[in-house]
Amino acid sequence: MGNQLIIYNTLTRTKEIFTPLIEGRVGLYVCGPTVYSNSHLGHARPNITFDLLFRYLTFLGYKVRYVRNITDVGHLEDEVEETGEDKISKKARLEKVEPMEVVQKYMNTFHRNMEDLNILPPSIEPRASGHIIEQQQMIDSIIQHGFAYETNGSVYFDVEKYNDEFKYGKLSGRNLDDIKTNTRQLDGQGEKKNSFDFALWKKASPEHIMRWPSKWSDGFPGWHLECSAMSVKYLGEQFDIHGGGMDLTFPHHECEIAQCTASLGKESVRYWMHNNMITINGQKMARSLGNFITLDELFSGTHEVLEKAYSPMTIRFFILQAHYRSTIDFSNEALQASEKGLERLLSAVDTLDSLTASAQSTIDINSIKEKCFDALNDDLNSPIAIAHLFDGVKMINAVKAGNESISKEDLADFRTFFHSIIFDILGLKKEQTEKGGGDEILSGTIELLLNLRMEAKTNKDWGTADKIRNELHSLGIEIKDTKEGFEWNLKS
RNA sequence: GGUCUCUUGGCCGAGUGGCUAGGCAGCGGUCUGCAAAACCGCGUACGGCGGUUCGAAUCCGCCAGAGACCUCCA
Fold this sequence. Notes:
Blueprint: E1 6-9, E2 14-17, E3 25-30, H1 41-59, E4 63-68, H2 87-95, H3 99-116, H4 132-144, E5 148-151, E6 154-157, H5 159-165, H6 176-182, E7 199-203, E8 219-221, H7 223-235, E9 239-245, H8 249-264, E10 269-275, E11 278-280, E12 283-284, H9 295-300, H10 312-320, E13 328-330, H11 332-354, H12 365-377, H13 382-401, H14 408-425, H15 440-458, H16 462-474, E14 477-481, E15 486-490
Parallel strand pairs: 3-4, 3-9, 9-10, 11-13
Antiparallel strand pairs: 1-2, 5-6, 6-7, 7-8, 11-12, 14-15
The protein binds one RNA strand through helix 1, helix 6, helix 8, helix 11 and helix 13.
């Protein structure tokens, strides 16, 4: 144990040793956002989780093809009601712009937010609207195999028929009989045989803006279809890992399995991975509860539940401090704890870089390295890995204080290890400080005052020295006295 | 109503039969003219009640509480 990556597979509900389909290569598909509004805190979780996976697999030497889609058509406000409007169309109608303007605007925001969080771009980022042909081909195939039917220009997946041959509900652990008795029966389902059938193609109503021609009607594809069509196109009929939020398990991922199985005769995905959800002060994040925080609001502190702004790296570190399959609760207190912890970790990296070697080591570097990688191998247990990094921080500080020593070889090794795990794998980075910020006059003035304070200190004029310190502090300038002199920062 | 999950010290969060993470806060100390910052040290927790066991936070049962999905959600 320890040197093999183990992944929890939602499909089997067990941890399994990860073995790729093709040696040395990994195909990874993750459900991306529907770009009809600003990216929110909820988007941070899966993207950071699977960014960690992507980075770690890459670190392990795999050649990874990471596909993450953009949903820019087909995601309805209400899948059950046939009057359900496409989310993007609706936004376009309300804002009186083209649907693709909506898509572009929020996709840009999403990309900017992801970059802020130091999330690597995927290898391929396909858009649903660019794969209408592929989706239509998949519908054809599903119809040919007898698992879909057409009504009034729309095509629906025949869940009951599929369930007779394959089992519908295996991923989410439910069976069709339960679904039958528990699904709300709604009026106006005339087109579907059963309420639990889902749309593969929807005929567009006259006022619907986003539409494409097809043999069935002028219309648009169903939401679940895009992921099936695009994952198969870019990763093959079978591929290694499919990820996404737990809330997508049913119905979205269940429907993906049904679609792929119905058209290909076999399941496509070998390992299903699901990240858990985020709560805020113990409550689910929802627009209706007023605790729906966008990433921009989080980074700028402009939301009433936030006491201050939290940097993207604080958010990233906070999310990595919990295991991806646990729920995680956001609160000001918890975020500020992470903020300080991260500072401590990153300053230890600087300390490590400045250490000088001794003839011999009195500390055990290898046990920390092993424990960190064991943790990551155990279903990406980043919180445990981070805990061991803090043990490393203690060692680093002890060496600096002269209580321990480190050999030249160990020091080089430790530096490499710390840099790769913190920066390459966990994807943390040092934030550029606001200091200066192009304002030469301000920084010059501050430096002048602080130099005057140094002179006052030299003359033991404590009154003047303290006055300068206190006045600057009340203006939001943090001053740290050091052996050599001083350091300062603008407090954010 | 159905299916499932969770309940850990002041806060956040790992662990999951004995070796009892980590961060933040708190307390004590080092440093400092004083402070701040930094660093070092300290803290024995697992909802309640039963049961299994030499031994349970960890397994089983019941009770209480919280949440998720079943409808769009990451």
